[in-house]
Design a protein that fits this description.
Chain lengths: ~250, ~70
C-alpha cells in the first residue's frame, strides 16, 4: 500500500516535467518566429524607403503639372500688349515678346490693383496660399516706379538665358561654357528666371505668384521700388521649352 | 529492495531536471506568445505600408499618363 502511494506521488510530480525533445521544439518555434519578425521588419523598412523616393517623384510631377495647367490658362493672353510707353517700344534689342514682358511688368508695378483685378483675380485659386498672398499684396500695395530696358542688363540676361537653354540648366549660377571657356557677365542686382512660359503675361504671372518659393523672392524683386532698369531675354530651353531671364539693376 | 533504494535516489534527480525544463519551457511559451502577437502587428504594418506604396505608384502612373497626353 505504501509503495503504491509512493509511486502515485512520483507520477503526480512528473506531470510538471517537460522532456528535452519538447523543450527543443519550443525553442525552435521561438527562433523561427523571431526570424520571421526580423524579415517582416526589414521588408516594412524597404517599403517605407521606397515610399519616400516615390513621394519626392510625385511632388516633382505635381509641381510640373501646376506649371503646365497654369500655362494653359494664360494662353488666353497671347495677344500683344498695347502700350503708350515709347521708351519700351523704341527699344531696338528686345523682341516683341520681351517688350510685352516689360509692359506687363510695368503694368503690375505702376497699377498693381488694376493688374490684379484684370489678370490675377479671374484665375484666382483660393486653395493656393501663393495666389491668396499675391492678391492681398497687390490690392494693398502702393504703385511703384516703372522700370525700363537697359542694354548691359539685357546682355547679361541674354547670355544666361541662351546658355541655360542650350544646357538645360535651371538656376542663377553663371557656368563656364565648355567650348569657349568663357563665362556670362553678371550685370544685375537682382535676377529672376522663369521657365516654361514664352508670353509676357505668363512670365510675369509666374514670377509674381512665385509658387513653390516660400521666400517669394521673385515677387519681391518684381515689385521692388529699388530697381530702375531691367534686361529681359526669352530664349528656347531644352527642358522647359522656353526660359526667360530678367536682370534688374 | 536494492531497486527501490536506487529508484528513490535517481527519481528526484530526474524529476528535478524535468521541473527545470518545465520552467524553461513555460518562459519560452510566454516569449513565443509575445513574438506571435508582435508578428501579427508587424505583418499588419507591412501590409499597410505596402498598400500605401501601391497608392503612390498608382498616383505616379496617373501623373505620367497625364504628361504623355499633354
Amino acid at each position: 500500500m505504501r509503495i503504491l502511494f509512493f509511486i502515485a506521488n512520483i507520477m503526480l510530480m512528473f506531470t510538471h516535467c517537460v522532456s528535452r525533445q519538447e523543450l527543443a521544439s519550443i525553442q525552435q518555434q521561438v527562433a523561427e518566429i523571431k526570424d520571421e519578425n526580423y524579415s517582416v521588419k526589414t521588408e516594412t523598412k524597404g517599403y517605407i524607403d521606397s515610399q519616400k523616393i516615390l513621394k519626392d517623384t510625385l511632388n516633382k510631377l505635381k509641381s510640373n503639372i501646376s506649371r503646365v495647367s497654369y500655362k494653359k490658362k494664360t494662353e488666353v493672353f497671347q495677344q500683344h500688349f498695347i502700350s503708350d510707353s515709347m521708351k519700351i517700344e523704341r527699344c531696338s534689342f528686345a523682341t516683341r515678346d520681351e517688350k510685352d514682358t516689360y509692359h506687363y511688368l510695368n503694368y503690375a508695378r505702376t497699377k498693381p490693383r488694376e493688374f490684379c483685378e484684370k489678370f490675377v483675380i479671374p484665375y484666382w485659386d483660393k486653395k493656393n496660399s501663393y495666389h491668396n498672398s499675391l492678391v492681398k499684396t497687390m490690392m494693398k500695395m502702393e504703385p511703384v516706379n516703372p522700370i525700363f530696358p537697359d542694354f548691359q542688363c539685357y546682355q547679361s540676361a541674354w547670355c544666361h538665358a541662351l546658355r541655360s537653354g542650350k544646357t538645360g540648366y535651371t538656376g542663377h549660377a553663371r557656368n563656364i561654357d565648355p567650348k569657349t571657356r568663357s563665362k556670362c557677365n553678371s550685370h544685375f542686382m537682382g535676377e529672376c528666371c522663369s521657365y516654361g512660359h514664352e508670353t509676357g503675361l505668363g512670365i510675369i504671372l509666374q514670377l509674381l505668384i512665385d509658387d513653390g518659393v516660400p521666400s517669394l523672392g521673385h515677387r519681391k524683386i518684381c515689385l521692388s521700388p529699388g530697381y530702375s532698369v531691367v534686361g529681359i531675354s526669352i530664349q528656347p530651353h531644352s527642358v522647359w521649352d522656353y526660359n526667360c531671364v530678367l536682370d534688374f539693376m | 529492495m536494492k531497486l527501490l533504494i536506487s529508484s528513490l535516489i535517481l527519481l528526484p534527480i530526474l524529476q528535478g531536471c524535468g521541473v527545470y525544463n518545465y520552467h524553461k519551457a513555460r518562459k519560452l511559451k510566454e516569449e513565443l506568445t509575445l513574438e506571435q502577437k508582435r508578428n501579427s502587428r508587424l505583418i499588419k504594418k507591412r501590409d499597410d505600408e505596402y498598400s500605401k506604396l501601391q497608392v503612390l505608384k498608382d498616383s505616379i502612373r496617373f501623373y505620367k499618363d497625364f504628361f504623355k497626353t499633354k
